[in-house]
Amino acid sequence: MGKMGSRRHLKRLAVPGFWPLLRKEAKWAVKPAPGPHPISRALPLLMIVRDIMGYAKTYREARRLIAEGHFKIDGRVRRDYKFPVGLMDTIEVVDTGEFFRVVPVPVKIMTLVPISKDEASFKLCRIENKTTLRGGRFQLNLHDGKNVVVDPDEAKKLTTMSVVKVSIPDYKLLGHIPLDRGVLVAVIGGMNTGRVGRVVSISEGMRHYRKLVLIEDISGGNFYTSLDKVLAVGVEKPEIALPVTMVLGGLK
Prior knowledge:
CATH class of the largest domain: Alpha Beta
Shape: globular
Number of domains: 3
Low-confidence stretches: 244-250
Strand order of the largest sheet: 5-4-7-8-9
Strand content: 35-45%
Helix content: under 10%
CATH superfamily of the largest domain: RNA-binding S4 domain
């Protein structure tokens, strides 16, 4: 995506297409602050509270609720109404005890699905890169901007583009989902965003993240996408709750 106006301001006509805003209803939109997710794959917290959850009717009401600490993102209270919320993040409404997760969905790109308190205690994060640290240890750079340090023996089996299951808010490793044949994946980018299926094959490419992935979706059809647009969500069954329209047949 191109440059979106100034550093502090964002016009509605320039917002990402999946944002739930009427472009001509007003001139300005809330621009997400720099954070764990880029603007092209995130929603500002104020928009989630006002336009998706419906806990406020106006900008001022939503901003007050957030400042009072009524919402947690990944187990931490966030008081910045511009905080960027993206894929796999968990949202807790402190007063009502409700929990939600941001997941990919067709057309809308991202949506919130209700989850249990137990499921809200972890999240799935894709390994974008691995960095060698002093002393021979490795740092995993995750898709949500967080970093996890692991020992060399553990780092050998944790490849880039695979997924780790981490506890929140302390980010301790709970498990690992390799990106391999037979694994369940969700598409998080491109024209197939939101589709879920099993990996049939992974073709060699010039670069690791540009490899072609053949996926069999829940209806039995096959489609291709690139490796950087898929996120592993389970082996035999999904580790996380997905929209009901996705959880059909063998994915239950």
